[in-house]
Amino acid sequence: MTDANQPNLTNPRIRELCGTMEVHRRLLNESITYQERRALIDNRALAYEHETRGIARRGVLIIPVVVHVVHNPADPSQDISVTQIQNQIDILNQDFRASNPDVTQVPAVWTDRVADCNIEFQLASQDPDGNPTEGITRTPSTLQFFTTELDDVKSSATGGADPWPSDDYLNVWVCNELRDAIGRVILGYAQFPGGPPTTDGVVIANFCFGTGGTAQPPFDLGRTATHEIGHWLDLRHIWGDDRGSCSGSDLVDDTPNQADATFNNPPFPQISCNNGPNGNMFMNYMDYTDDAAMFMFTHGQSRRMDACLEGARASFLAAPAFALPAAQPTPTVATPGAIAPSQAQGDGEIVRLRHEVERLRRDYQRAESILDSIRATLDSDAAIPSGG
Ligand SMILES: [Zn+2]
Prior knowledge:
Layout: H1 20-30, H2 32-49, E1 61-71, H3 82-95, E2 119-123, E3 136-140, E4 146-147, E5 170-175, E6 178-179, E7 185-186, E8 188-190, E9 202-205, H4 223-232, H5 299-309, H6 346-383
Parallel strand pairs: 1-2, 1-3, 1-5, 4-6, 5-9
Antiparallel strand pairs: 6-7, 8-9
Helix pairs in contact: 2-5
The site of zinc ion has 5 residues, from α4.
């Protein structure tokens, strides 16, 4: 006997691990603004992918993170430890810098495609009001599970926790159980760039967050967060979400065409869509393999994330210094067109760079508001019936 409400993570036929595409399709149906923004974001990503547009940023970008732990007080284990959270941050910093120890398992035919994405993550040290924080909020909730359909973990009004400003922080919600629109238990979901700020961020079930504590095999090596933050930075699933038809694409050139998601921890190679002899790149973070079976992003994926960071998420290039710990080893700031400062250049250079990124941030906001007014004009023109 099976109970539809019980987690079933072992049968691939009824398994969906990630709810990101479902949320994406919902937003496309709900919002013309989202449709328009997604078109702009995809066009920009294509220009980076085909290298008609170069990457401006240099050095390592550090993204401030706030983790919202939503837990049921009846089960104290749900109120996960700082250690488990920090373990997750450490894993992200390995995975996005290609310094994860298991990167050595990438098949020899693809080692030259492994990318150091030059992105790191830190728990925020100051909250939106400027007060010191450990970058973690804790919210008691009696809800048994949260859903992608309602996005209910993202608001205190629906039993979750409100986000911090999504221009300045990556919001990560961790809760006990997540379900998709048809009730399947999933590991997590993200909102692609271009969506509503009030629901921006990623959500991860506590059984697949970080290491130790509530994390359970085979999802106990922190790769769900790597995958979901990949989406948050605009990466698609590696098989192109085409249900095995071989017609879809992840919009990245250096990942092979692949029929469908890969589960568990299969041997290399796995062939589909006539992609032999090397087959599917199932060890990519954007597949559905077990945590121990995924260990790489490609250069094409890194370029796509850069397109996002220099476009829809450009605010993080100018993230206010307050969100990060005060004493940072350099480089701490990645700025378009500027080399990250070396240790020897001292505080003066850092201050100059911070002024520069503030200027760029204002320019970006100005460009956004001009775009909004153009959009409004187009909308009102479209509303006037044409003569004839
Ligand atoms: Zn996904």
